[in-house]
Design brief:
heterotrimer, A alpha/beta (about 425), B alpha/beta (about 240), C mainly alpha (about 325), A: about 425 residues, 2 domains, 13 helices, B: about 240 residues, alpha/beta, 9 helices
């Protein structure tokens, strides 16, 4: 009797609450206001990882963006085509500590509370993922910096643009072609079971299989793996000619360190991040452990002399070195390029509405040349056409440098295969 | 002739190399109080733990009302009518005194005393709403007893209920326990205090180092040579 | 609270009714608060996450606060729930709201699978559940299961996104979790659970079927986590395995519950609102030493305030009433 009475009381309270919630909750969009008079500032909102697994990549990427902002503000602000004048830039950056959940709440905050004009994602697919649906639901264009996951780009969603890198599944095409060209038939692949690395592994495997080559070792391991001793032993047992370790920076570092102390030697070793955070790897792994290994040649190592937006390579590197000396790497370049994409959008948009920004980028697609190469997106907002050449870390005097070795159209060094050593 | 309630045959229990009980056998009838005595470490509490399901014996059988008990869980034993108190009281400290007894009473099969009656019986009625953890040791022991009684046990093991009581209190407790024998219940009373036992039991079993060394009347036990040696040492004949 | 000399039934009944009413308030006030929350604060994702965490903290309340088993691997049910719901929605084409129930079922299935862990005690149990949670995560994320779970590529529920429905679902879910705790707390079942937590053997000797009851409490806690994960996945829309199989989720739920005080209906709710609110607020500035502060808070809590905020409150009330009784006596 007692129980029944309170159950009905409780259910009516809940029903009342649900009703109030349904009335109170807003599923409508919150696009930035498009008043006829120009806003006093353009606010850029972003999340970054100040600590945790993604910090080493996220902080330089944010610094690159900040570099772009300071250069524009030095000119009085960014040029906004809709108002035909320069408007100063403001930044709101929340620290998500490498947590996707925290990032999600912060992206939501940036849109619903801070009402930013420009929403920029954090580094990488894991931390970009929470932004994708929030941006779509609130009709806010997401400037995706380096979140290259395939599920992000769907037909019918105009609210996302990949600014800097190709979709991760097409990254390894030159890598696969290089191995085929060197007549490598025994390939070992170990990769982190996350979108970014798994999609690369699948692409390599598919391209090799198309050429009649089956990997002698193909295994996915948890992204949190940092101990590679056992895996290296298993790989060595298959006597591979090439070993590909596809992970994030902490994985690559741990793998290269384990390889060094194991005393094992393979004719070719490839990891993903040395090309993006070269000086960090020189510190953590050392030149001896890095040399003759391969990595992706990002646009950071390409000298773009003529650009139609922003600084060229030489100018950019000099400025970056001066303002953010610890961020002189690929991620710094990506952050800066994001700024250039934002700049192009603001310059060419007819208003500050999010869809107008997106349409502006569709318009400039294919014609925007920056220190990150050619900006070209498909209808879903993903970058196409930009492939990452293969680079090898080669000795240079007492240190090492990155040389682009494949394809020949991009090469500035000659590959040393097989890698020398016992 | 009273019915046999509990019978142990050849119960042995060892922990690793330590033999805690060796082939202990006895029985107890309805309406009877059996004393279980012995020096510290002789295996009295281990015996209770074995019968009450905390330990599984390595050898031997236990019969409740003639039926052999197989491997079973403590809660099933409690529901079938075997229960006990604890040498160091084990109240549900954060629950009230009343709630402690209520839980047990809810699992009783058949009739028995109500919660209020039990609390009055063990003289805890005044503290019914108080947290069990705030009672003193003697009160907590009575609470243990009340909780065990709530399940209307056929045989009840009482573990050193008399410790720390003054003579008046001892007499009271002895009377309380004696009244439990009405209605065919059996008691097995573990005690050090011979005076207290004398008021309560006729028969005793004396254990030493896990072995039964004497079985008979309490008076004869006190005259037995080995019993005297075990308790008093070899002072002299 | 000291009983009067009578100690008889009527007074006990009155006390119990007062406790029940207070407990119902502890359901009504959070539900009403969150119902109107959006009118004051438009970051609905934060509010949804907070409601999910209130429920999770109460799941811990049931498993640990009442029964004494602390599952560090609680996130295993949470992630299973997220994936169970997603599979039901995307593959079985179940409507999203119904999918949340499938999440609960998935959580329960994993909970049943882990029942053998109850052979372990204390810290061993806690850590074993952590290992089990990680195992579930690795299985789901494994590329070999890609055709079912999409492996490492994550899931995308954008096709069923509806912020209104999600908010109401979270609200109803939180209310039901709170009601479950009220029911447990005011029932013989809850009393038996507390007895199990105090002393399993004594509870058994009091006739309590320990295995059955603690398994039931476990399954209820697993169901709560499963539905919580489902709603979380729905609200987050695009998520990877690492986002829903995250040990930080367990840690948060446990800390919120302990800080507020387990064994009560108010405690875990207060703990969640205060600590998760604080975490989000600080996170929106610059949490330099936040993890350090959080870690110290956990240690401090376990050492000095094992009964949490509610424990402090109760102790203060007790001290006050003792003083009053002393003044009268």
């Amino acid at each position: 009797m007692k129980i029944r009475k309170f159950l009905s009381a409780a259910l009516s309270v809940t029903a009342l609450g649900a009703l109030a919630a349904a009335c109170g909750s807003s599923s409508s969009s919150s696009s930035s206001s498009t008043t006829s008079s120009a806003p006093s500032s353009i606010t850029i909102g972003t999340a970054y990882s100040g600590s945790g697994a993604f910090a080493t990549s996220s902080v330089p990427e944010l610094n690159g963006l900040k570099l772009w902002m300071s250069l524009e503000n030095a000119k009085g602000g960014v040029y906004v085509g809709a108002y035909k004048k320069r408007i100063p830039l403001k930044l709101i950056a929340y620290n998500d500590q490498s947590s996707a959940q925290t990032a999600g709440v912060q992206y939501n905050q940036l849109i619903t509370q801070n009402k930013v004009n420009i929403l920029v994602a954090d580094f990488g697919s894991v931390l970009t993922a929470p932004a994708v649906s929030i941006a779509q639901a609130h009709h806010q264009l997401l400037f995706d910096q380096s979140g290259t996951g395939i599920p992000f780009f769907t037909p019918g969603n105009p609210y996302i643009v990949l600014c800097n890198l190709p979709e991760s599944s097409i990254w390894p095409t030159p890598l696969a072609q290089y191995m085929i060209s060197k007549k490598i038939t025994k390939v070992a692949i170990v990769y982190g079971t996350n979108d970014f690395d798994a999609s690369q592994a699948e692409t390599v495997q598919a391209k090799l299989k198309a050429a009649g080559i089956t990997p002698v070792f193909y295994q996915g391991i948890p992204t949190s793996t940092t101990s590679y001793g056992t895996i290296l032993t298993s790989i060595a047992a298959t006597h591979p000619q090439a070993v590909l370790e596809l992970g994030y920076q902490p994985n690559d570092t741990a793998f290269l360190q384990a390889l060094q102390s194991s005393g094992l030697h393979f004719p070719m070793v490839f990891t993903v991040f040395p090309g993006q955070l070269f000086s960090l790897f020189q510190q953590q792994v050392g030149n001896a452990g890095l040399q003759y290994t391969y990595t992706y040649a990002t646009n950071f190592f390409h000298n773009y002399t003529s650009v139609n937006e922003g600084l060229n390579s030489a100018q950019f590197l000099a400025t970056l070195k001066k303002q953010y000396p610890s961020s002189v790497n690929t991620l710094g370049l990506l952050g800066y390029n994001t700024g250039l994409v934002v700049e192009a959008a603001l310059k060419n948009a007819t208003s500050l509405s999010q869809l107008a920004l997106r349409n502006a980028l569709t318009k400039v697609s294919g014609n925007l040349n920056t220190v990150d190469g050619n900006f070209k997106i498909n209808s879903e907002g993903a970058q196409i056409g930009e492939l990452l050449p293969v680079a090898q870390i080669l000795p240079s005097g007492s240190t090492t440098k990155i040389g682009i070795v494949y394809p020949s159209s991009a090469a500035n060094a000659t590959a040393v295969y097989p890698a020398p050593g016992a | 002739m009273a019915d046999e309630i509990l019978r142990l045959e050849g119960i042995s229990k060892h922990f690793g190399g330590l033999s805690a009980l060796q082939e202990v056998s006895f029985s107890v009838e309805g309406g009877e109080a059996l004393g279980l005595v012995g020096p510290n470490g002789s295996g009295k509490t281990t015996l209770i733990n074995v019968v009450c399901g905390l330990y599984t014996p390595n050898a031997g059988n236990i019969y409740l009302e003639g039926a052999k008990l197989g491997k079973t869980t403590p809660h099933k034993l409690a529901k079938s009518g075997i229960n006990r108190t604890f040498q160091v009281p084990q109240p549900f400290a954060s629950l009230t005194v009343r709630e402690n007894v209520e839980i047990a009473a809810a699992h009783r099969r058949g009739d028995g005393m109500s919660v209020v009656e039990i609390l009055d019986f063990v003289n805890l009625g005044k503290w019914a709403g108080q947290e069990a953890g705030s009672l003193n040791a003697a009160q907590q022991k009575r609470l243990d007893l009340g909780r065990a009684l709530a399940l209307n046990p056929k045989v009840l093991f009482v573990d050193e209920l008399g410790a720390g009581l003054n003579p008046a209190e001892l007499a009271e407790v002895a009377a309380m326990l004696r009244s439990l024998l009405n209605g065919g219940r059996a008691l097995v009373v573990v005690e050090h205090l011979m005076g207290f036992l004398d008021k309560l039991v006729d028969r005793v079993i004396v254990l030493n180092a896990g072995r039964e060394i004497f079985h008979g009347g309490l008076r004869s036990a006190l005259d037995d040579g080995e019993v005297k040696r075990v308790f008093l040492g070899t002072v002299g004949a | 609270m000291l009983d009067s000399k009578g100690g008889g039934k009527p007074l006990a009944g009155l006390l119990r009714r007062k406790t029940l009413l207070l407990d119902l308030l502890a359901v009504a006030i959070p539900v009403i608060g969150f119902s109107f929350g959006l009118n004051f604060y438009s970051n609905e994702l934060l509010l949804v996450y907070m409601m999910v965490y209130v429920a999770l903290a109460h799941g811990i309340n049931i498993s640990y606060g009442f029964t004494g088993y602390l599952p560090f691997g609680y996130f295993g049910f949470f992630g299973a729930g997220a994936y169970g719901a997603t599979l039901a929605i995307l593959d079985l084409h179940v409507p999203a709201l119904l999918g949340m129930l499938f999440g609960g079922v998935a959580g329960v299935l994993v909970g049943l699978l882990l029942l053998p862990l109850f052979r372990l005690r204390g810290a061993y149990f806690a850590i074993a559940t952590l290992a089990a949670g990680e195992a579930v995560a690795d299985i789901v994320a494994n590329p070999s299961l890609q055709s079912i779970t999409n492996g490492p590529y994550g899931e995308n529920l954008a096709s069923v996104y509806s912020s209104g429905q999600i908010y109401v679902a979270a609200l109803v879910f939180m209310a039901l979790a709170l009601l479950a705790v009220v029911l447990v707390k005011n029932s013989r079942f809850g009393l038996s659970l507390r007895a199990i937590k105090e002393s399993e053997y004594s509870a058994a000797m009091a006739g309590v079927n320990v295995v059955q009851l603690r398994s039931l409490a476990w399954v209820i806690a697993a169901a709560i986590a499963g539905v919580g994960g489902a709603i979380f996945g729905w609200a987050t829309t695009v998520f990877y395995p690492s986002a829903v199989f995250d040990s930080a989720i367990s840690v948060f739920a446990i800390v919120f519950a302990l800080f507020g005080g387990t064994g009560s209906v108010w405690g875990p709710t207060l703990g969640t609102v205060l600590l998760y609110g604080l975490y989000s607020a600080v996170g929106l500035s610059s949490p330099q030493y936040f993890q350090l502060i959080y870690g110290l808070a956990i240690v401090g809590l376990i050492l000095f305030a094992p009964r949490g905020l509610v424990g402090f409150g109760r102790a203060a009330v007790r001290r006050l009433s003792l003083r009053r009784a002393g003044a009268n006596g």
